[in-house]
Amino acid sequence: MWMPGRTGSTWVQEALNSHPEVSMLGEVFNNGTSGAGFVRSMCKFYGAPIGRRVRRVRGFKQKFFQCNADLHDKLCAFQREPLAMGALDSCLRVASTPPPPSMAPDAGWNVTTRSYSVYNAVGTRVICSLRRSSLDRALSKAVQLVFFKKCGVSNAVTDAERTCLRQLQQERVSVSIPYVLQVMREAEMAATYNAAICEAQARFSPVFFLWYEDLLAHPQRLFDELQRFLGVEPRPLQSSAQRIVSSGASSWIANLAEVQAAAAAAMQAKQAADPSCAT
User: Fold this and answer.
1) pTM for the whole thing?
2) How many of the other CB atoms lie within 10 Å of CB of 151?
3) Is 274 helix (H, G, I), strand (E, B) or coil?
4) pLDDT of residue 8
5) How far apart are CA 213 and CA 133, in angstroms?
6) Beta partners for residue 25, in sequence order
7) Which of 15, 90, 188, 216 could staple 239 via S-S, CB 3.0–4.6 A?
8) CA-wise closest residue to 142 among 3, 6, 4, 273
9) Which residues lie below 8 Å from residue 192, measured CB to CB, with a gap of 6+?
10) What are phi and psi of 217, to 5 degrees?
């Protein structure tokens, strides 16, 4: 599953794991990209015999859309010339510079290209987890930061995590408007780029476009279609993951109206595209 953050991927992961023929791991292949060990580990996962820990259909979540490195430059280039095939080619281009000293060793550096070589060899199917609304994704990211600061986790899956989320909602929170606008601009650029990457990949392998908004509107239908795509018998799926920003957010995000007004003004002023792309 190729995914950026805050697109419902944890919900989908939990749901797929409730199917007896599916093993869906988390973000276990985001890091550790130096040497052959990374490729060996991924091949070992795909080639493992069916058992209690690995089922017939197996996969994992990955922040594939980090596109190795130089992501901002790639987004700006795509904004100037939005060609679908060019998006995949640019995403797979290896980093042009070494990682900065502040970056943890192998923290996603060139993970996209190394992973892609395994995908081609194995013949994988790709789930593209995407979200149309850049504001909703930015707001979810801003709330996630507050949630992580209080609860120490990014998603509300377990009973303890859901309890902590309810406590946070009872306390009411405010989010940073400049941060929301910054993430919204980045998400606006990335949404088109990510979709173009998936459209290009669909020329080479099966791709399932899983839009977050469609999943919210028709969860059972989308999950049935996803199971057929994966080659398993559709059945009701279950997930304990809880949305951290839902339709009742106005009751506990104290400055939600101000955030929405600022976002609307930014969109009206055509500031959704990152101004740092200007030359």
Assistant:
1) 0.89
2) 19
3) coil
4) 92
5) 8
6) 60
7) 15
8) 6
9) 78, 82
10) -75, -40
Query: What secondary structure letter does DSSP report for 236?
Result: -
What residue has token string 């080659």? Answer: 231
Q: Mean pLDDT in the chain?
A: 88
185-202 per-position pLDDT tens digit:
888 889 999 999 999 999
Q: Enumerate long-range contacts of 28-32, CB under 8 Å, 24 or more apart.
A: 28/60, 29/60, 29/62, 29/111, 29/115, 30/62, 30/63, 30/107, 30/108, 30/111, 31/104, 31/106, 31/107, 31/108, 31/111, 32/106
d(CA 70, CA 113): 13
Q: Give the number of residues written for the chain.
A: 279
pLDDT score, position 228? 98
Ordered alpha helix ranges (H), the chain = 9-17, 37-47, 71-80, 84-92, 111-122, 134-151, 159-171, 177-201, 212-217, 219-230, 256-268
Pairing of strands 207-211, 126-130: parallel
pLDDT-derived band at 37 (thresholds 50, 70, 90) equals: confident
- Counting Cα atoms < 13 Å in the Cβ hemisphere of 197 gives 30
pLDDT of residue 20: 95
